[in-house]
């Protein structure tokens, strides 16, 4: 108890300093001190520490840091099965998130269940029990505000644990992502539009061909298209990213999407897929990426790991 009180006091004192503790830039020294005070090696590989946590921290829900460098206090577990959703790949233990994310999934899945041929949603990875870097896969999903939604329309929501491990989603792309294939339906667009129209959502990542198709088919209000952003690989699922919740002072929002509907940008992605630009001969060599250690994370993450 004494150690926990000392740790909390250190975090509060750091928060009172001139530099913001909730920023991921320039706080490594403060974070190192805080992790050391919690008897945690600041140089420990972060994904191993957070990947070992099996349950959420005994704290109030809070996201700390940014989507790709942070952690999550007081995570809430999305129930494995609900009236309009099923969580997939349960062995990964990645169906944890902020309460706002769980509430969003319930809203979106209820809408999806109104679409012809859809019983709701199959939900992929959210976050680990305490967020943080994952042992495998995503570089984001670290603060409980990211969610992967499968493109496969659920016909039923009675899959067993084993079935959820073995069933696969389906790809929506053809020709390396320049266009949608025959599996794409108006219902996919309706679900994506509903997600993008939700005020809690910051942006949605999907393959370029899907964005181009939605730009062609959208009628009336096109403001929601701004949140749909092309990104590599997102053709078996789409990735929803929520805004930092109101009052979450330790959370770092991503810069908002550029103004406009983003359709011209998506078309340029498609052109680049069809005719890749030549490499820049003057580009500097890539800097090798090192492993993220605990000291790279916000100082508050020490209390997240230390919590019982």
Fold topology:
Blueprint: H1 2-15, H2 28-37, H3 46-51, E1 62-66, E2 69-73, E3 76-77, E4 81-82, E5 85-87, E6 96-97, H4 99-112, E7 121-123, E8 146-150, H5 161-166, E9 173-174, E10 179-180, H6 186-197, E11 201-206, H7 208-217, E12 228-230, E13 237-242, H8 263-274, H9 301-306
Parallel strand pairs: 5-7, 11-12
Antiparallel strand pairs: 1-2, 3-6, 4-5, 8-13, 9-10, 11-13
Helix pairs in contact: 7-8
Can you walk through the features of this model?
- The structure is a single chain.
- This protein has helices at residues 2-15, 28-37, 46-51, 99-112, 161-166, 186-197, 208-217, 263-274, 301-306; strands at 62-66, 69-73, 76-77, 81-82, 85-87, 96-97, 121-123, 146-150, 173-174, 179-180, 201-206, 228-230, 237-242.
- The chain is of the alpha+beta class.
- The strands form 5 sheets. A 4-stranded mixed β-sheet has the order 8-13-11-12. The protein has a 3-stranded mixed β-sheet with strand order 4-5-7, covered by helices on one side. It has a two-stranded antiparallel sheet with strand order 1-2.
- Helix 7 (208-217) packs across helix 8.
- The longest helix is centred in the N-terminal third of the chain and has 14 residues, at 2-15.
- It starts with a helix and ends with a helix.
- Residues 1-26 have low confidence and may be disordered.
The rounded Rg comes to: 20 Å
The rough form would be described as: globular
Distance between the termini: 11 Å
- Give the H and E element order: HHHEEEEEEHEEHEEHEHEEHH
Q: How would a textbook summarize the main sheet?
A: 4 strands, mixed
Number of strands: 13
Number of helices: 9
